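Running log. JK asked me to keep both predictions on one page so they can be read side by side. First protein, sequence followed by its tokens:
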Amino acid sequence: MKQKEKLNWQMEFLRMGKLLRKEITSLKQFNERQKISGISKSGDPQFKVDNIAENFLLKQIKKISKKTSIAYFSEDKGLVRFAKNPEYLLICDPIDGSRPFSAGFESNNFSIALAETNGKDPTDLTFAQIVSGFLLELKTGEYLFAEKGKGVIQNGAKFQPKPTRFNSNNLNQLFWSFEFNGTPSRIVHEILGDLIDTSANKGGIFVFNSGSYSISRVITGQLHAYIDIGNLVLKKFPELEKEFKSVGSGSILHLFPYDIAASYIIAKEAHISIADAAGNSLESLSLTDLSAQNQTSCVCALNEKLSKKLINEISVNLEKKRKQIAEEQ
């Protein structure tokens, strides 16, 4: 039997990303990009451009499967096995940030992570098995790549983090992003409203509609933090499930593993703090389970001190929410 090749994953991911970018940016009309063509396995709407990207990328993955033993997992295709006992699992979101991409904005990425199976079935793998990740900005073509234990590469050169200092005791100058999709806006404001009011004037608040893009901006030093509280709130208050489903078109739509698998390993290698919004490690998160229980929240921050400060702010307001619900019952 012919032995499979040992691949240069950075170059493979870069090749795929460039080809994908060329393929989907050829769809010039915004009204064409914004057409909804179906519902993905996660329950999230699939835009026309998502389908084009998923189908194109699958063809590229098939080419890689001839070189090495892999399985593939994505939002639309689910788990696709190219070998009975694959050596690797690729976890991919061809366009993380479909909505901003469809509007012609820059806050979107081609996101792909690589996990080693080490004899395990792909369905048993978690974030702990991720060994590399790749993000390519679809607007600019710039990219970040990380390999476990080897640091971060930015656009072909060793990543040089910008020296960004931040006084964690002075949150009014915080530059940060957060997410709305899948979480009722009323609840977002109840939990994050104080932080929004504190930082709106002297700091900066952004909603990018892309977890991986937000995390990448913390890595590059353009943001101090990124917060997504949705899944934590639902786990704390399961009685609110109906309200969450009402804004998710009948589904629970929070951070899925494929959303942040690549940005997670890049953040870790860049020594950026990343955990769920309660401060728990993401290492045990399954890479292929799309259930509400396996979806996650996230706090990504420049350092541990800022992360703890933000998590405490969230915790205080969750407790206020708990008391409010108790009083209403």
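And the second, directly underneath as requested:
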Amino acid sequence: MTSPHFRRFGHVILAIGLLGLLIWQISSQEDLLKTWSEFKSMDFTKNIFYLILALLLMPINWGIEIIKWKNLVSTIDKITGRQSTYAVLTGISMGIVTPARIGEYIGRLSVLTPEKRPPGVVLMFINSLAQNIINIFFGIFGILYFLDDYYQFDDVKLNQYFVAVCLLSILLISLYFNIRKVVAVTQKLPLPLFLQRWFKKLDLIQNVSNKSLVETGIYSLVRYFVYFLQYCMILKFFNLDLGISQMMAGIATIFMVQSGIPLPPLSAILARGEIALMVWGMYNLSVSGILAATFTLWVINLIIPALFGIAIILFTDYNSNSYEND
């Protein structure tokens, strides 16, 4: 068993390393100077309410995710709200500095005992799939709006796009509600021995009921609207004047595109900026304002929670057996 002093030392080293990578990542962003320039040129007495509201929505955003993760994990193991908070926030800290946010798996699965981590990986897939289905559903209508209003696609092309994306949505929803069957079938395949052993540990996935899947989907939907409202507030804060239909379609499109691009951490914010410019650039808005809005939302929803996650790692002596489950 690892000694408490050695584990504590490991936590300190991990926290310092994560903080260093986070600082390096932020300082490497070209959008930082543009965001600072936008801040200096703004009249805060006019729009500060929007920024405050976006900040206040951040704990609600991640609070929903914490509840959602606790609810989903309860199908294979009982964890406390404190454990779920630890898992989600440390997952953000580790995920934001690792390629394709692989570190998020380490944080999320850290609250589970080793034998329950393989089904935990599948639960993470389910959790991510639920959010992506919501993103795609609303993104369909966002992109349709742009194709019709801005690119002026003819009805035949619009219908072809609509049918193609609807078929993709149906496929993903079918996968979502049949994940237990997919796991059961995979367990019977003639896989290499090491994979067979791993898949045999996934029996607990059969405990995931349709009720739990529906609840996860509802939490994902609520979280989508919270994040949507945050984005609206940030656009208002930076005086990016848009009509309500343009704003709804643009945000839905951005969420959909972002959800389908796994990127290294340093490229993630750059890609977000490029996507935002592609969408909002259609309306001849300030380029620096668009990039500043994207960077600010990134800081609010990822950097600030990541700092809380680093603090938890630093000041919490935790392992999967530290707390007694309720």
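Observation for JK regarding the second prediction: Residues 177 and 312 are 34 Å apart (CA to CA).
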